[in-house]
Amino acid sequence: MGNVGHAIFLTVIILALLGRTTADPTWKLIDGLLKFVSVGSKGVWGVNRNDDIFYRSGTLEDGEASGSGWVNIAGKLKQISSGHSVWGVNANDDIFIRQGLTASNPTGTSWLNVAGQLKQLDVSSTANQVWGVNTNDNIYRRTGITTDLPAGTNWEQVDGLLKFVSVGPAGVWGVNANDDIFYRTGTFGNEASAGSGWEHIEGKLKQISSGDNIVWGVNVNDDIFIREGISLRTPAGTGWKQIPGKLKQVETGLSGQQAWGVNSGDYIFQRTRLTATRPSDIFQLPTIDGYSVRVGDCPGNDIWVIYGDGITLQDCAERCTSHPDCVSFMFFDNKRCFPKSRTCEETSQDNPKNVFYDKIIEDVLSAVDGYTPRTGDCPGNDIWSIYGDGITLSDCAERCTSHADCVAFMFFDKKRCFPKTKTCDDTRKENPKNVFYDKNVDPLPSIDGFSARRGDCPGNDIWSIYGDGITLSDCAERCTSHADCVAFMFFDSKRCFPKTKTCKDTNKDNPKNVFYDKPFVVTERNVALNKMASQSSLFRSEYPAERAVDGNTGTVLYPRQECTHTGLEYEPWWKVDLGDTYVISHVTVINRGDCCGERLQNFMVRVGPFEDLRENTPCGDIYSETPSDGETIDVRCAEPISGRWVSVQLIGREDYLSLCEVQVFSGSDPKSVRLTDETSKRWRDDLRCGSEFPAPNATRGECDPDSCFPCCSQSGYCGNTPEHCDCADCVNYGTIYGVEKSPVWSGLSEEALLSVSWREDFRCGPGFSAPGAEVAECNPHSCNPCCSGSGWCGNTEDHCGCPDCVDYRSHGVPGIKWREDGRCGPEFPAPGADPGECDPISLFPCCSAAGECGGTAAHCKCEGCIDFRKSPGTGADLSREVPGFLLRVGDCPGNDIWSLYGDDITLDACAERCNSHADCVAFMFFDNRRCFPKTKTCKKMNKDNRKNVFYDKESATLLSVEGYTVRTGDCPGNDIWSIYGDEITLQDCAERCTSHADCVAFMFFDNRRCFPKTKTCEDTSKENPKNVFYDKKIELPPFVDGFSVRRGDCPGNDIWSIYGDGITLSDCAERCTSHADCVAFMFFDNKRCFPKTKTCKDTNKDNPKNVFYDKDIVSMTASSERGPEFTAQNSKLDWQETATAAGAWSAQPWLMFDLGRSKRVTSVVTQGRNYSPDWPGESHEEWVMSYSISYGDENGDKVWYAGDDGETVVFEGNTDRDSKVRHDFSDFSGPFTARFVKIHPRTWHGWVSMRAELDTDPYLDF
């Protein structure tokens, strides 16, 4: 086939990919790859996946033209819009307009940065209009655009939330985060209008484009639609019409019949009118009998023995048909044949020359009695003993039916039988010759008092009441009669597995498993009724807080006095003390009915264990709707919340708060439900807690009440000592959630109690005696097995890992009489006892008749049970210590020095072998007789075998050297071998590193070998205690105005055109400041300048000579604006008023700073509104007299800035227009770290008008 034929075939594939039919206009493939394309009166522009910018030559003023090649334009943008001008936004949401666009210079001259930040914008082709949305989906339109001022003057916020907006002759259209579609009323044919509300349009689209009496859009499946019937009479149109094809983004030009778009592969297409249908316009994928055809490929699984090159489609199909394993083939470029042993559901469409053919397999789903067929396979779990080849479907079914464990089978190619012990929800359909048959399961038998479902919740079995060969009724009775049984699994209609726990989703691998849940009924009741209530203020004595919990649901404040009423204040609140902890599911708030219902707008309900309502968890979202008079509002918590205090508070508003009744609903009893599953977890895995450490389902992290660490200390750690549980600010979640933990020795005999060697108050060591020990120990089987150097039992590194710590878990190992798997009795011997016993001082001291250690009556009081607490505890002798070594239980597997290995030797002999070998750093002594010397140690021990005892060689004191910091371990790799040294001193090694330009650290091994390094690391590897690491001390780098500084580098994205070597920091900063695309720079070794187009969240800190400078980009937004002349941008310090821009931001209730990244905020400076005689209005005197501050990293609402007393600080503001008032946070409770900071005006003079600035520490991580 010639070149023309190849080109035609390429077009064939692309058009087929778009789904074009013969009766529809053409989609024309355009050369190039773009992720976003825009067409308008300034031509066709686009950006690719690298954010490179392109203009299509020959398309200016001619949207119908296809152009002739792409021109790369300097700069980086992630999205672009061509209209009456060309605008775009970059990766940081900075906004730019292209300057100098003319007919003779269609690509323009430069980019101008426009104030503000947007994630997407759109420019009209027929009017001076620009609309856009920011990262919070807030909507803005640009005002003040004229011929002389094409960039406009201000951003005016428009009501609503959208993720994508478009402006054109058909008006303003947009889609929100749910892909709902909206039209801006009043904008059709009047694009300069801001409109007056949004009309919801039926349908779902992810992206939309407004054109001339037509609107285009694409949905999540990349289907293309146009809106028909748009006219002056019906500006929102009449309906959607699907256009054949697939595009991920589309944009209409000046003509509604013409559009450009890009598909999922970034291919570019143009839609044009067809004046006539020509045969050459229409192409179809070639078909072949016996196969279905589609575009693309299913990569891999090729049958190379029948691969062919330079053959016809017919030849390729015949090769596949004649091979027993061939199920499909890919035909490339109309000449290469790739037969396949598998197919796939979705082809890869990277190459339009790939066409895929699936073999049509008819009548594969043959039926067989007792089974349900489906295509595919559930791989694995085969029963090979009844596998069959060359057998019939009926034979295969009989084999499965006759086998007790067979629940399904896969029948391959009508001849091979694979019986299975498990099925699956979704079969794998890679091979169409696979047919899967599931054994039909009879309806689930029911039993009174339980609900039935298929599957199992593995584990948590109560073995003492397990039963085999019993009836369903017997199994249910066993569970009903056992206090801890909440469910049971009944297997194969004969085996009973009672359970202590249930689960949300059962495992359905085995259809013979049926799970029965005991019903859990909670009767809701109002637990706030007649409880103690309070509120932030009292309007009159007739309207106290108790009115909201008196049971009277009347809604008349005056004269019936049925409601509460606060004074006029900012964010008033009401709260109730429930007197006990309840699990709250929802709260009903009844609004005042005789008037003023709108005052309850923007209220929040919080629930939690703290009297300070700010510390508690929100129940539901802020209620932002305007309530009607007397309305009953039911607030549902996303997940049930445990707490004693419930509050209602207005958020972000100054008003009165009036409540007629607040009903708080919970289960029938306190603590009736506890949240312990993962989806509702209110504690953290790192054991941090409190307001600074939120958990998945709690803004204030709690501690697991069922764990060993139920209490939160004042410093925010979960634990169980008096410092965690008994201090003034401690919180005991065990008490809150009703988890009572008795001492582990409760139930011991008097004789056994006299031998206990630990104390109930957790004290240990010299000076603290126990009943059975002159020096008190710690219970090795409790949550606190280690004695700290200060004499406290605990479980942290300070208790178990310090030089003076004692870990009692490592004592008495060789002769232990119980097993780690919890089994006991004659069939389960232990290392030091046969039969195996149960640990008498653990939580599981009794052996049941079934051979399980436990602590219930079924373990301790049944016939045949043994309670090992009835005799003194059975410990073994302590493992011996060895001078020069530290002892631990367990092993660090591997790294053995086999030349020193010894069997049947003493502990002292093993230690001598290790001491005599230069590379030996530790040894493991097994079963008191086998010696395993090691070249490495480890931090975390493997404790699978209790006979393993590990001895680490004690490390000598670390030596220091001037100019370096020292730590144990190594940062492997990055060695500078040219200055490596052996048998040298520490001082020599340091000098070698200091004198080498690239050396930033060195490792000194065994006090003699020197390994200089080009990189360091944050955490050293401590496998060899002979390794000592020295980091070169780095002085604090200088900072430069306009940039924040941190250690490290964000590799890549360098702007080489302004790179510099041998220049100053000031010169480097100037280069970055003067370049439109520069957002940061890395300054290496105080001399090399690497300007960057991108920054990063976390720098790479391998080289301490790298210092990274981020351009300080502070943006300001506000909750509202007094008018287009009073934008948040006017709030900059020293902003001057003009005839068109007010001298300050002006509105309420808040002004927010986005610092670009989390920074340490040290002070705040404010001014009032500046005045200019040019201002067209009257003279004014406006300033904020007082304000509060909130902040956070996700938004500005996480934390209120509070003083040392915990109360929100109210800062003094201004007393005139232009004087500056500064507050250093060090004068209060100290600086704070955040990205978003909100200023909330409290009182003001004239109007809420403010200019402000935050001072931040330029050093981000030093």
Summed up, what is this model?
This is TECPR1 protein. This protein is mainly beta.
Total tally of structural domains? 10
Q: Percent helix among the residues?
A: under 10%
CATH architecture of the largest domain: 7 Propeller
What would you call the shape?
Answer: globular
Total helical elements: 12
Strand runs, count:
80
Mean pLDDT: 83
Biggest sheet architecture:
9 strands, antiparallel
- Poorly predicted ranges: 1-25, 274-283, 668-679, 740-749, 811-815, 871-879
The CATH superfamily name of the largest domain is: Regulator of chromosome condensation 1/beta-lactamase-inhibitor protein II
Using only CA atoms, what is the Rg? 38 Å
CATH topology of the largest domain: Methylamine Dehydrogenase, Chain H
What does this structure look like?
This protein has 1262 residues and is mainly β. It folds into 10 domains: 25-275, 7 Propeller (Methylamine Dehydrogenase, Chain H); 292-359, Hepatocyte Growth Factor; 371-439, Hepatocyte Growth Factor, CATH 3.50.4; 451-517; 525-673, Jelly Rolls, CATH 2.60.120.260; 812-878, no CATH class; 885-953, Hepatocyte Growth Factor, CATH 3.50.4; 964-1032, Hepatocyte Growth Factor (3-Layer(bba) Sandwich); and more. The protein is 7% helix and 33% strand. The chain has 12 helices and 80 strands. Strands 72, 73, 74, 75, 76, 77, 78, 79 and 80 form a 9-stranded antiparallel beta sheet that branches. The two termini are 67 Å apart. The relative contact order is 0.04. The model is unreliable at 1-25, 274-283, 668-679, 740-749, 811-815 and 871-879 (pLDDT under 50). Belongs to the tectonin family.
